[in-house]
Design goal:
This protein is mostly helical. The protein contains three helices and no strands.
Length: 78
Amino acid sequence: MSKAKDKYYELKGYLDRYMGGPVNDVSNYVTELEKKAEMFDEMVKCIATAVDLLGDCNAYYEIGEDILERAKKIQRGE
C-alpha cells in the first residue's frame, strides 16, 4: 500500500507543478485505496487460515497454498 500511496503523492506533486497550482484534492481516492489495501490484508489472513485448516492431507491444500503465495506477492508489490 505504501508504494501506491507514494506513487499517488508523486503524481499529485507533478500535477500540482505542471497544472498551474494545486489540483483538486483527491484524498478520498487515497482513503479508498487504503480501505481496499486493508481488505486485501484481511483476505490474505483468511486464505492463510484456510490453508492451515486444510492441512497436508487435503487435495485442495496445494491450490490454497498457491493462491496464498500469489496474494502475498501482490501484497508486497511484487
